[in-house]
């Protein structure tokens, strides 16, 4: 059997991965045993303030996708498929003629401020969680739509279909409408038991049910490149496949671990920490622990906690770069390593850290408000953030173990860009008192590409973890300094 695998004809796939600040197109080559990846195009993905709204620069992103296809054409490589992933919750609305009704609003826009409380007046918080299993984030699709309703936005009634961002981008490439399951599961409009829309939620809130497009599972074929796009870019009419449209779903699909006693952490702009579960968990303990039930690529549930993540550091760097000479993230890590330990503790999920802006000043204000020493300079502020993340990971794992699973977690597997941060990885191992397995850093796009390989029958679902383990190195971090971290955690629990 292994001999057959090794002589398999190499298949190629194109994965588009849209992150918080950049997007890229990655070419994957799979020979039946290992996958290799190559970046062929990278571009900025910065939201734009336009007419008082924070929006996706969608025309630019479509242009960049075409640039990637042009570059692909020059390689001479024939790809068997295209897959697209982005972050969750955001969407575009199409009218009856399939035209886009305005640029999609970015989840960090302020239009959803206070909207959750208005929704809870109609559907109580506990009931809404039981129906949807979705944690309460003010940027969830549900609150974005209800904000439009409260504002009297006419596009809400004009719209015929709602497409999430990967689905919308696929629509522009293929002309075919559809909604991918893992993206829909981030909306707070999905019933996690039926894996379909919650009609009750739409009806109770007076949201148009016609918006709810047919849900497709990862592995389905969405369509093929429109002939005019294929001609413009010099490529074939390539099939476009449904992958884990939610970037975290694709990232989790690339975790090189098997068995059921590990937790995963997809580490990037957001930190998504959790486990895979066969069925959703929607009781009050799960709700109070702020865990959510999102779809996994195999139809199971990603039971996870959404943590603010490296966004705080990214925003700090953006502000420091604006003020003075630029430093890269590696330099910030070195500065943090030299800074004093546990000068101040922060809850990284405090709402004051959500919006863009002067993040260093917010961290300092937060420390003043909570009666702590105020960190000064890039190194001290960065260390406070990294320590705060590690302590939040511990809190989240303990909630998962004690309040939800009633079992121990043996190790934490970290994938995504944050897995390259050795200091944060070591802090995490120290804080949680368990081994941390870091890598691969390109988990999201690897998952995207492997799901395409599954879609065309080039690999089996059960072989995915083995393929990742064979293809990419990982690094293990052992816990150290237990007493120091235990003392910091006790203080953290008393504060928050």
Protein model, in words:
Strand 10 (190-191) and strand 11 (196-197) form a beta hairpin. Helix 13 (311-323) runs antiparallel to helix 16, helix 14 crosses helix 16 (377-405) and helix 16 (377-405) crosses helix 17. Mean pLDDT is 96; it is low at 1-6. Helix content is 40%, strand content 20%. With 496 residues, it is α+β, with helices and mostly antiparallel strands. It has two domains: 2-241, 2-Layer Sandwich (Nucleotidyltransferase, domain 5); 255-439 and 460-496, ATPase, nucleotide binding domain (Nucleotidyltransferase, domain 5). It starts with a helix and ends with a helix. It has a seven-stranded mixed sheet with strand order 17-18-16-15-19-20-21. Strands 3-2-1-6 form a four-stranded mixed sheet.
CATH topology assignment of the largest domain: Nucleotidyltransferase, domain 5
Order of strands, main sheet, comes to 17-18-16-15-19-20-21
What about the largest sheet? 7 strands, mixed
The CATH class label of the largest domain is Alpha Beta
How many β-strands, per DSSP? Answer: 21
What percent of the residues sit in helical stretches (DSSP H or I)? 40-55%
Describe this structure in a few short sentences.
The protein has 496 residues and is of the alpha+beta class.
Topology:
Blueprint (H helix, E strand, L loop, with lengths): L1 H5 L4 E8 L3 E9 L4 E10 L3 E3 L2 E3 L2 H18 L5 E5 L5 E4 L20 H6 L4 H8 L8 H11 L3 H4 L2 E4 H10 L4 E2 H4 L5 E2 L4 E2 L1 H7 L9 E2 L4 E4 L2 H7 L5 E3 L5 H6 L9 E6 L3 E7 L6 H5 L2 E5 L5 E7 L3 H13 L5 H10 L20 H11 L7 H29 L5 E5 L6 H11 L2 E4 L4 H13 L8 H8 L3 E3 L4 H14 L1
Parallel strand pairs: 1-6, 9-12, 15-19, 19-20
Antiparallel strand pairs: 1-2, 2-3, 4-5, 7-8, 10-11, 13-14, 15-16, 16-18, 17-18, 20-21
Helix pairs in contact: 13-16, 14-16, 16-17
């Amino acid at each position: 059997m292994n001999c057959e695998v090794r002589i398999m004809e190499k298949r190629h796939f194109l994965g588009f991965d849209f992150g918080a600040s950049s997007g890229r197109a990655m070419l994957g080559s799979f020979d039946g045993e290992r996958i290799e990846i190559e970046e062929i195009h990278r571009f900025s993905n910065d939201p734009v303030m336009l007419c008082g709204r924070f929006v996706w620069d969608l025309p630019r992103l479509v242009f960049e996708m075409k640039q990637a296809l042009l570059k692909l054409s020059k390689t001479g490589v024939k790809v068997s498929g295209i897959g697209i992933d982005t972050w969750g919750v955001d969407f575009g609305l199409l009218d009856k003629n399939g035209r886009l009704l305005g640029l999609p609003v970015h989840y960090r826009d302020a239009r959803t401020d206070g909207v959750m409380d208005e929704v809870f007046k109609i559907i109580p918080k506990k009931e809404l969680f039981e129906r949807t299993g979705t944690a309460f984030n003010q940027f969830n699709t549900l609150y974005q739509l209800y904000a439009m309703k409260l504002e009297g936005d006419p596009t809400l009634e004009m719209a015929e279909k709602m497409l999430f961002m990967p689905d919308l981008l696929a629509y522009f490439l293929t002309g075919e409408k559809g909604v991918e399951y893992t993206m829909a599961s981030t909306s707070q409009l999905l019933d996690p038991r039926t894996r379909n829309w919650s009609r009750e939620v739409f009806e109770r809130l007076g949201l148009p049910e016609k918006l709810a497009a047919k849900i497709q599972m990862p592995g389905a074929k969405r369509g093929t490149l429109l002939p005019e796009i294929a001609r413009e870019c010099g490529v074939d009419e390539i099939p476009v496949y449904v992958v884990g449209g939610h970037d975290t779903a694709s990232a989790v699909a690339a975790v090189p671990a098997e068995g059921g006693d590990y937790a995963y952490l997809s580490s990037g702009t957001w930190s998504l920490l959790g486990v895979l579960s066969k069925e959703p968990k929607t009781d009050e303990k799960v709700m109070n622990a702020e865990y959510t039930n999102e779809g996994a690529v195999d139809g199971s549930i990603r039971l996870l906690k959404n943590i603010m993540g490296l966004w705080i550091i990214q925003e700090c760097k953006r502000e420091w770069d604006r003020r003075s000479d630029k430093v890269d993230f590696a330099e910030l890590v070195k500065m943090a390593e030299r800074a004093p330990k546990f000068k101040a503790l922060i809850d990284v999920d405090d709402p004051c850290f959500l919006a863009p802006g002067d993040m260093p000043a917010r961290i300092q204000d937060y420390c003043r408000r909570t009666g702590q020493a105020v960190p000064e300079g890039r190194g001290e502020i960065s260390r406070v953030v990294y320590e705060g993340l590690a302590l939040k990971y511990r809190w989240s794992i303990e909630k998962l173990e004690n309040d939800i699973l009633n079992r121990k977690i043996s190790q934490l597997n970290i994938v995504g860009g944050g897995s390259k941060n050795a200091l944060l990885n070591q802090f995490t191992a120290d804080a949680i008192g368990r081994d941390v397995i870091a890598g691969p850093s390109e988990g999201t796009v690897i998952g995207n590409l492997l799901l395409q390989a599954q879609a065309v029958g080039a690999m089996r679902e059960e072989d995915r973890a083995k393929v990742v383990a064979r293809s990419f190195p990982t690094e293990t971090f052992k816990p150290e300094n237990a007493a120091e971290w235990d003392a910091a955690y006790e203080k953290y629990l008393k504060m928050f």
